[in-house]
Amino acid sequence: xxxxPRVSVVFFLVCLTxxxxxxxxxxxxxxxxxxxxxxxxxxxxxAEFYWSRLRYTPRVGQGGGYGYGYGYGxxxxRDYPKADRQFLMALRRLTRIQARSTEQVVDLxxxxxxxxPWVYAVQVESxxxxxxxxxxxxxxxxxxxxxxxxDFHGTADWQNFMEGMRMVLPNRPIEDLNDNDEIFHVLxxxxxxxxxxxxxxxxxxRTYEKDGYVPKWRAIRDDKGRVMVAICHNMHLGDAWEWxxxxxxxxxxxxxxxxxxxxxxxxxxxH
Amino acid sequence: MFQFLFKYPIAMFSRGEFxxxxxxxxxxxxxxxxxxAAGLAFLIHSRLKQAAPRVNIWRAGVIWLLQFAMAGLLxxxxxxxxxxxxxxxxxxxxxxxxxxDSRSMGITENGATREAQAVKALQNGVLAALxxxxxxxxxxxxxxxxxxxxxxxxxxxSAPATRIGDGLKQLATETSGLPIGxxxxxxxxxxxxxxxxxxxxxxxxxxxxxxxxxxxGLERIPNDTEINDVVVAPRALADSRLSATITFHQAGYxxxxxxxxxxxxxxxxxTREITLAGDGSIQTEGLLFNAGEAGAKALQFSIxxxxxxxxxxxxxxxxxxxxxxxxxxxxxVEGEPRWEYKFIRRAEDDDRIVQVVSMLRTTExxxxxxxxxxPKELADxxxxxxxxxxxxxxxxxxxxxxxxxxxxxxxxxxxxxxxRGGGLLFLGGRSxxxxxxxxxxxxxxxxxxxxxxxxxxxxxxxxxxELTPAGADSTICRLVDDPxxxxxxxxxxxxxMDYQExxxxxxxxxxxxxxxxxxxxxxxxxxxNYGRGRTAVLxxxxxxxxxxxxxxxxxxxxxxxxxxxxxxxxxxxxEIVASVPSQTLFDDGHVQLSAEVRDRGYQPAADxxxxxHVVGPSGISAMVEMSPVPETPGSYQAEWxxxxxxxxxxxxxxxxxxxxxxxxxxxxxxMDGVAENFHAEQNRELLERLASQTGxxxxxxxxxxxxxxxxxxxxxxxTVRETKELWNMPAVFILILLLRMSEWLLRRKWGIV
Lengths: 271, 753
Prior knowledge:
The structure holds two protein chains of two kinds.
Chain A lengths: L4 H21 L26 E4 L1 E2 L23 H13 L9 E4 L10 E5 L4 E2 L2 H13 L2 E5 L3 H15 L5 E3 L23 H5 L11 E6 L5 E7 L3 H6 L8 H18 L3
Parallel strand pairs in A: 1-3, 1-4, 4-6, 6-9
Antiparallel strand pairs in A: 2-5, 7-8, 8-9
Helix pairs in contact in A: 3-4
Chain B lengths: L1 H5 L3 H6 L1 E4 L5 H21 L1 H4 L5 H22 L2 E8 L5 E7 L7 E2 L2 E2 H20 L1 E7 L3 E4 L15 H11 L5 E8 L10 H9 L4 E5 L8 E8 L3 E3 L3 E11 L5 E8 L2 E9 L7 E8 L4 E9 L12 E9 L3 E7 L4 H9 L6 E10 L2 E5 L15 H4 L4 E4 L9 H12 L4 E5 L21 E2 L7 E2 L4 E4 L1 H5 L9 H9 L7 E2 L3 E2 L4 E8 L2 E11 L2 E6 L5 H5 L7 H15 L5 E4 L4 E3 L3 E8 L11 E7 L5 E8 L6 E7 L4 E11 L2 E13 L12 H11 L3 E2 L7 H4 L8 E7 L4 H21 L3
Helix pairs in contact in B: 3-5, 5-18, 7-8, 9-15
């Protein structure tokens, strides 16, 4: 039997796409070999600390980033995995935390998230939760988990972020962090900070996006006053980590972004 | 009957010395006996053939035996056997009769009180028989000895205590110039002083005064439960979980349910239903309760009375517990940021007593300190001076290699446990225990395990925890009050995130929990006492998963850590440690206050000024100066008497060169009339032991008539040595007749007459 050329081409493309998706989701090993160092890594490595990136379901029409939906390319995976791995290089080099060199994607579909007490989420203006997911994240935080959110800008993004956040922690106040707060001094003294822009700064010279002119260092605390949700609004630390190795992106932004990230992790592991 | 057959009382044979009065040498007797044996054997053997077949070899043997016994007996009688014995001279000795009149003698049994039974026994001829040959002196015995003129003066048994030893000692002292021939003690043996001391026995034996003990009262009381003892820590931290070990026995209620209760005043702290074991057997049960708020507490432990129980006063005992609320500080040294560190700190957040001061190596050159009391604390890293380190009550070593500590700091760690009496906990981790080369350090002696001589003992792999029998009894591991449910609770705990091989537990170490990983079972939590302190190993850095993987609100993780850390610090004392031998003084207020005084480096302080301020009931307040104990540097003692029943608090203060070194508080209580309610059954063992140790005899009341016959055989008082010949005992003649008749009858039967 002769297979029509059109069917063969479609079949080939479907197979290729499937293989690429599987490779990407399971560790992006295909980036290895001759690729940059940050793409190589050992996912089977066991460690004390796993850089955990929260995978959530974006609200309809709010895919953000450069993709839509739950899989790779959705808003949760902005800057992934380069930002994660470059940050992990700094973490492994500058602290005594034994961290895996590759990131860990976690979601709220199962209790597995409880094995990763520190989690990072981006473009949270687009996140959405079912009731079960919101409860799991609430339990996670109240039991001692730590959530850092990043890369959302301006008034509209804040409102959208809060829509999700109120499902998780309906009554917890959100406060602006004081420069003297322990989270800014646990490892590096970061009493003076500035807005960390995304990669768009290289092309435009703008440090803000949308109407997010002023960086907001905010937090939600638990009953004992410990920060359990660290909110980085009107800034894009992930981009700073991701583009830290490029000559065009200013070192001072990358440097602060790394230090903030390290402080937040150290705080999450000590409080 | 015995005396009819043997002419003399049995006591004479047991105490006298057997002699042969015949003037001929004894060896001749032996030779003649041997010659008789041989001659009779030869004679019988030579006639055996003639008598056959009627007499076979064993019949001949029987005849030989009977004839030899006869000949031997006659030969011995020729040498005049006799008993030489010391005997009290009539009318010249005093027999002291001691009648116990403590409250337990007022217990009614078989229609009369024990005391009435004793009086009746004496009145039924015993006293009269003794009076024939001796002077008698009557005494009333309770907490002390009182002479009474006659039995009419015996009062109702109501004295709150019996001190048999003290009474006997008093008697020996007061009658040192009198010829006391023997002591007759009528008692139930319920002694409140804990027994009869060696001094008393020695005093009696030096004068060879036998004590004849007459045991009164039932040896086992039907339908009674009694608490034998309650063991509970005399000191505790506020809000900590305490364990009381209650030992008791019962009669008449085997298999029945009973309820153990712990109370603090009117407040019930804990109850537990138990099933009673067999009659008379000692049963031990545990009871867990919360120590509650700080303060000196008199806790009452009881078994709720059962139907038909007459003596209910022995169902409860009181123990003093000094609940302390002073802060205990634990220094936690962690070599790397990790989740275990965070969750241990969070577990202790709500603890009002235990404070975790931590130093965490965040980077190669940075130490992050938490819980410090001032900016200078730990600013230079781990302390290098004893006075700085000894300010903590316990130390936790996390994932830190031994090499992080200098040899001097390692020595300090050893002194911290051994000399200062602190607690030291080692956690598992990639730089901990074997992987941290602790096995090769000078601290390895402190560890409760012999670490494996290899690296890579730390594994990031799941391990499940399970309690050992020792752990099931431990308050550290008690997550649920019910012991069985607690064991099951541990089995259902989420797996640990990692584990570490610990090697073999050392002798004396207690493995409280084990873990299963990779098909192997290994120790998880091991504890040991070392020197004045204690050490433990928790071979994991992954208990934090108990917090994250269990439902929100589950307190397992926090409870375990609080209990473990409280165990670590609870017995860590300060520079001054005050103590008393027993916190409860029954009927006697004499107490010996002791204090161990050490300087800031916890070396014994020999030149301190130590005094105790004692506060008691009814406004009693006294300052007592404590004196150094010779040859024990740092030890101080003082004698004091609590005159009134009630609770007392003694605050011991030590000073050196006018500067206060520290203070400690010890509590004790005097309870009058309580001990008499316990051990109400006759303590026959004590009475028998007293009698045998002094050369006397134990009598039951119905045997008392023999007393007057046996009492003269004593070496005390004014005695004369008597020789009692034995040849004319009726038993001898009966034996001779029996031997001859037996032979004759056998010969008739066998047809060889």
